[in-house]
Amino acid sequence: MTTAPMWLTGDEAADALLTQDDNALLIGMVLDQQVPMEKAFTGPLVIASRMGGSLDVSAIAAMSEDDFVALCSERPAIHRFPGAMAKRVRQVCQVLADEYEGQAGNVWKDAETGAEVKAALAKLPGFGPDKAAIFTAVLGKLRGVTPPGWREAAGSYGEPGSFRSVADIVDQESLQKVRETKRAAKAAKKAAAPA
């Protein structure tokens, strides 16, 4: 399995953690809503540094909800909505600790098809159909997790050269293309909305 270097935050240490640690990448995806992508995917490094330098999902799962919310709410907060997102991250960590031996990679390790990868992801707290499809594309394009049907399971996010999501970001140029695609989609949606 190949792991492409992550290029999601503009911060070398944060991108290195995302590259090396499936748990960090999954938690970054959990945080990737209603904030800039760079903020979301830097979150795992911020959490790790506040927990003594390592991102230990079992330790997060064992913390009280209030303590973890407080840790995530320290300035700078990990998210625009630090309380709600801390609770969501902790819920995901509890599932990882209880069902997957504390390793995000175990969520998709035994999946024989792309549909199974997406279905396993969709069972995680905070992963609706869209987020599960995007992360299926991330795994396929950037992590080498390519069971049969993974592109179909990822939908339009799995298309080669689609520049629709974080799954397509490998450098500054691709980052700009993804931003342009998102802007265009947002403008089209706004234009189609009834006045």
Content of β-strand: under 5%
Task: Please give the share of residues in helix.
Answer: 55-70%
Structural class by SSE content: mainly alpha
Would you tell me the overall average pLDDT?
95
- CATH level-four homologous superfamily name: Hypothetical protein, domain 2
Instruction: Give the number of helices.
Output: 11
How many domains make up the 3D coordinates?
Answer: 1
Q: How many runs of DSSP E, i.e. beta strands?
A: 0
Query: What order do the helices and strands follow?
Result: HHHHHHHHHHH
Largest sheet: none
Please tell me how large the radius of gyration is: 16 Å
| CATH classification, class level | Mainly Alpha
Described by the principal axes of the CA atoms, the overall outline is globular
Instruction: State the CATH architecture.
Output: Orthogonal Bundle
Termini, distance in Å? 49 Å
